[in-house]
Amino acid sequence: MYKCVEQRIKSEENGEYRSYGIRVSRDKVIEDVSTDKNFVEALTEKLNRLKVDPIHIYDVLEDEL
After folding, report:
1. Residue 6 CA to chain centroid, in angstroms?
2. What is the pTM of this model?
3. Spatial separation of the C-alpha atoms in residues 59 and 9, rounded to whole Å
4. Is the distance from CB of 25 to CB of 54 less than 8 angstroms?
5. Residue 52 belongs to what domain range?
6. What is the pLDDT of residues 49-65, one digit of tens each?
7. How high is the pLDDT of residue 64?
8. Element (DSSP H or E) covering residue 64
9. How far are the Cα atoms of 7, 10, 27, 55, 65 from residue 59, in angstroms, in the given order?
10. 4: Cβ–Cβ under 8 A, 6 or more apart, which residues?
């Protein structure tokens, strides 16, 4: 089951900002997907509803972004 996770990201270019990633499994998180929490929550709901296999997650992300 995919889950939206909040993160604090630090970068030299943008300083510190809040971003949202997707927890794919206990050991795998795709970080910094978007700063738009609603977008990432809707995306994780869609991934769960469609039962997307984790092997396809990057293809889905590319299509959605």
Report:
1. 9
2. 0.85
3. 24
4. yes
5. 3-64
6. 999 999 999 999 998 88
7. 87
8. helix 57-64
9. 22, 26, 20, 9, 10
10. 20, 21, 22, 23, 37, 40, 41, 43, 44
Structural domains counted in the chain: 1
Question: What span, in angstroms and rounded, lies between the C-alpha atoms of 60 and 4?
Answer: 15
8 Å CB contact between 41 and 24: no
Give the whole-angstrom CA distance, residue 62 versus residue 65.
Answer: 5
Torsion from C-alpha of 27, 32, 33, 36, nearest 10 degrees: 130
Asked whether the beta carbons of 37 and 6 are under 8 A apart, the reply is: yes
pLDDT of res. 2: 96
Q: At residue 55, what is the residue type?
A: I
**Measured between alpha carbons, how far is residue 10 from residues 13, 17, 18, 28, 42 in Å?**
9, 7, 9, 20, 25
